[in-house]
Amino acid sequence: MSWKLAFTYAVADGVPRRSLWVALIVGTILNLINQGDALAAGRHVDFTKLALTYVVPYFVCTYGAVSLRVREERTHIKLPN
């Protein structure tokens, strides 16, 4: 699979929107678990960890969508007679 094809799948058919929703929900839950005590106490929050906690679920969700499309494409290719 080429990078160009992977990028095309990653930005097509609602993948970015779906990945964003997953990142917002999962990232918020993970941030509350990992840094909730600091947020509640008004202490310093690690903004690098905060950002990565949203970025990682976004890329994981996007990777899942891209890999599904690649697998579907490979299984639907018709062989010549």
- Pick out the low-confidence regions: none
The separation of the N and C termini measures 24 Å
Order of helices and strands: HHH
Overall form: elongated
Q: Average pLDDT, to the nearest integer?
A: 90
Percentage of residues assigned to helices: over 70%
Tell me the number of helical segments per DSSP (H or I, 4 or more residues long).
3
How would you sum up the major sheet? Answer: none
Oligomer state of the chains in this structure: single chain
Number of strands: 0
Number of domains: 1
What would you say about this model in short?
With 81 residues, the chain is an all-alpha fold.
Present the secondary structure layout.
Elements: H1 3-10, H2 15-41, H3 47-75
Helix pairs in contact: 1-3, 2-3
Structural account:
The protein has 81 residues and is mainly α. The chain has one domain (16-75). Helices cover 79% and strands 0% of the residues. The chain contains three helices and no strands. The chain has helices at residues 3-10, 15-41, 47-75. Helix 1 crosses helix 3 (47-75) and helix 2 runs antiparallel to helix 3 (47-75). It is elongated and about 55 Å long.
